[in-house]
Amino acid sequence: MKTSAYRLAGVLALTAAVVGASLQPASAEGDAAVLTSTPSPLSTSASSAPKVSAGLSEALRRDLGLTAEQAADRLAREETARATEARVRDVLGSSYGGSFFDERDGALVALTTDPVKAATVSTKDVRTRVVRYSAAELDSVKTGIDALAGRHAPDAVNGWYVDVRTNSVVITVNKNKLDATARDFVAKARAGREHVRVVEETASPRPLADVVGGWPYYINFGGRCSVGFSVYGGFVSAGHCGRAGDTVSDHNGVVTGTFAASTFPYYDYSWVRTNAGVTLWGYVEGYNGYWYYVRGSAQAAVGSGICRSGSTTGMRCGTILARNQTVNYPQGTVYGLTRTNVCAEPGDSGGSWISANQAQGVTSGGSGNCTSGGTTYYQEVNPILSAYGLTLILS
């Protein structure tokens, strides 16, 4: 694929991956990560390691402190983990306790309550750990807390999620806002459940939309958010960015589309139907002169490296910490978010999340910033596509 074939001169575009008239998508040549070890029965082969743009590799090296060789090796090993995780889950069955990618040795760690089954999936690419609770048990506890919260938990309760690494359910609270209502909620959530532990934080999450975001777009000529991913007919983004019927415009003030559907709170996703004449591209902007490939939407394992693009702070990377977190925003409770240690700021809302070349989700909100660091959550892209019957535009 020649990069010169994708110049944007003269194109009106508001998409998940445009970078401006003078920039081009990066070539993937030479960027294939290679896994040099011999694949096991539960591993992918070296030839299936992902091809990623040079810009994505640069962002991973910057934010995760890796050399070029380390970044290539990690991408290959994460690809192996991604392909292996579903098969490990099937083998372990009801004893499955979750899994995560361990960056220290580049292996998938599979948890199980059955020591006998643990031996059946152990390979050099898959380590096993025997735990007390199955993933189904922990998910059930988490669902019980969801029901306890209803539409909104006390303000001091930031959220809750299944922490695969510690085989527990974690409730996070803002210790600076704790009051009797929050303590009562936590006590009820923990009652009779040894699975649950509480972690104190010093800030609370908020949606990252602001009147100040891949590319920026503007809602009703006011607040700014970031495009998530191009789909046939438009693009997906965060639900809190706008309501059905709101107009969307680009940085030149040209109306480029309308919110066709939006959900927030409960979930945080939306899709914008673009107007005729808007060109949609299956890439993500890197804010560094590169486009990043979007080749699918396979879910990455917990512990995998991940990058997000937003119009306020550009491309930032980190790791996936947990899935299916419930987050308690001031506007209401949102379910099914993924927790990361990537930073973000207002205006980044709705922006793209990718792991290697696989679309992962759109920015919802978080706490902290890109000066001191923080926690950011994204809504997974596959449920958005399913909810609205949409299909990604691929590179």
Automatic annotation (TrEMBL):
GO biological process terms on file: proteolysis
Active site as annotated: H240 (charge relay system), D268 (charge relay system), S349 (charge relay system)
Keyword Signal assigned: yes
GO molecular function: serine-type endopeptidase activity
Disulphide-bonded residues: C225-C241, C307-C317, C343-C370
Entry protein name: Streptogrisin C
Keywords: Disulfide bond, Hydrolase, Protease, Serine protease, Signal, Zymogen
Transmembrane segments: none
Family designation: Belongs to the peptidase S1 family.
Domain of life: Bacteria
Gene3D superfamilies to which the protein is assigned, alphabetical: 3.30.300.50, Trypsin-like serine proteases (2.40.10.10)
Listed Pfam families: Pro_Al_protease (PF02983)
Residues of the signal peptide: 1-28
InterPro entries the record matches: Alpha-lytic_protease_prodomain (IPR037295), Pept_S1_alpha_lytic (IPR004236), Pept_S1A_streptogrisin (IPR001316), Peptidase_S1_PA (IPR009003), Peptidase_S1_PA_chymotrypsin (IPR043504), Streptogrisin_prodomain (IPR035070)
Keyword Repeat applies: no
Lineage: Bacteria, Bacillati, Actinomycetota, Actinomycetes, Pseudonocardiales
GO cellular component, one term: extracellular region
Domain Peptidase S1A alpha-lytic prodomain: 133-190
